Amino acid sequence: MLFNSSIFIFGFLPISLSACFILARISGPRAAQISLIVASLGFYTYWNPSYLPLLVLSIVFNYSVAAAMARVGSKIHRRYLLFFAIVFDLSLLGYYKYASFFLGAFNTATGADFAIPAILLPLGISFYTFQQLTLLADISNEGAAQRVRFHHFLLFVIFFPHLIAGPIVHHREMMPQFEKADYRFRWENLAVGGSLFAMGLFKKAAMADGIAAYVSPLYANASAGHRLSLVYAWAAAFGFLLQMYFDFSGYSEMALGLARMVGIKLPINFNSPLKATSITDHWSRWHMTLTRFLREYLYTPMTMSLTRRRKSKGKGGIGGSKATAGAFLSLIALPSLITMFLAGLWHGAGYQFLVWGLLHGLYISVNQGWRLVSPCIWPNRERYYRVMRPIGFILTLLCVVMAIPFFRADSLATASNVFSGMIFCNGVELPAIVENRLPALGTALAQLGVVFVPSGLTDLMMIWLWIAALLLIAVIPPNVIEILRNFEPVSSLPSTITVGRDSGLFRLLTLRFSLSWAVAVGLTLALALVCLPQPTSFIYFNF
After folding, report:
1. What is the share, in percent, of the chain residues with pLDDT greater than 70?
2. Domain count, the chain
3. Which of 11, 5, 96 shows the shortest CA–CA distance to 55?
4. Residue 347 catalytic?
C-alpha cells in the first residue's frame, strides 16, 4: 500500500486514525498501541501477504534475543548472542536481496551455469533488519541491558509510517515516546502532521513524478544501447538526482506527518542535502538515519579498532606531530571506502551500486584530507569560509551529479553509457530543429563537432526547465522542517535549523495556525491529489 494511493489516503488512514483515537479515549494508550500494531500488520500484508510470516519470524527471533540479553549478566555472553543475531539477520537479508547477484557473479567468474532463482525482495527488509540490529547492539552494552516490552518492540519495528523505507529509528528516541504518548486526538498534532503529509505528497506526486516522465525515457534509451550525448546525459543525471531528491524528501515528510498525527515524533531523515557545501555535509543531510547507523555501528568502530592497532605498533594517529599520510590512508580513507562500499551494497545488488558507493567513499576521503591540510594552507578561516563555501557548494553538487547515473541505471553498462556522455565521450547531439531554425548557429556548431538528430526539441527543453525549477526550489527556500520548526516536527532539530532562522523568508513562511495556512495546505493537498490517477512507488521502496 502506497502513501500516495487513494486507498491509503481515503481508506486506510482515516480508519486507522479513528480506531487509534477512539480506543485511546475509551481504553487508554495500551489499546491504541495495539490498534496501531494491527493497522501496521495490515498495511504490510496488503502489499504481499506471503512475506508477512518472514516479518513475524524476524520480529520474534530478534525479540527473543533481546529478552535473553536482558537476562544475561555477562557482557561476553551478550556479545555471543549479538553475533548469533547478526548472522541470522544478515543471512536472511543476504538470501533475499543478494543471492541472485552473487550467484550470477560466481557464474560469470567461474563459467559455471547454476540456475539463478527468481527471488522477490520482501518490502522493507533492509530497514526493519537494520533497525532491530541497532537495538540488539545497544542492549549488548552494559548501559542498555534492560528488558523491552514486546508490544513496544513490535511497534518499534512495524510502525507503518517508517516500516517500508525508514527513517531507521533508534530505540532511545522511540521507546520513551511509546511509554508517554496518550495517542488521543490533538488539533496541533493533526495540523502539523497534516501539513507535513500534504507537502510531502505534493513533492512526490507533482514534482518527483512530474520530472520522472522525462527522465525515464533517457535511461530507457541508454539501457537499450543508445549512446547518450553530452546534453542528454547531463539531463539524465541532473533529472534523476532531482527526481530522487523530491521523491525521498516527500516520502520522509509524509512519514513524519503520519507519525505526528498520533503524537509520535520520528527523527529527521532529510535536511536540504543539495544546499551542502561539502560531501560530508551532504551525507549529514541525506538519509540522515542511515548515515547515523553507518557512522555509529560501522565507521566509528572500524576507525577505533584501526587506531588501537596502530598505537599498539607504536605508530601515530591523525592528530599530533606523528600524523602521516599512512595514518590518513589507514584511519580515514580506508574506513570511508569500506563504509561507502557497503552503503552502495545496501542500496542494491548490482555492480553499479558498488561503483556509486566507492565514488562517494573517494569523495569523502578527499574531503576529509582537505579538511586536515586546509588550515595549514589557509589559516585565515573566516576568509577561507567566505571564499570556499560557494566553491564547495558547486563542487559538491557536481560530484553528486557525476555519481548519480550509477545509482539510477539498471546495469553497470547503462551507467557507463550515461557517465561517458557526461565526460564528452559520446559526442554532442542537438535536435535538428536548431539547425533548421538557426542555420548560421547550426553551421558553427557542426564545425565544432555537434551532430544534429531528428528528435524533438520539446522534451529536451522541458526536462531542462524542470531541472532549473526544481533545483531552485531545492537550494533557495527553507525546507518544510524549517517552516514547521516552532512546532518541533521531529524528535530533535539539527543545529542548521534551530540557529539563525528568525528573519526574512524564514519568518514569512513559519507555520502559524490560521485560515490562510489551512487554505494553503488544502490547496497543496488538492493539487497533489489531482496528480494521483496512477500513483507510482517511492524509489526507496526498492531497497
Report:
1. 92
2. 3
3. 96
4. yes
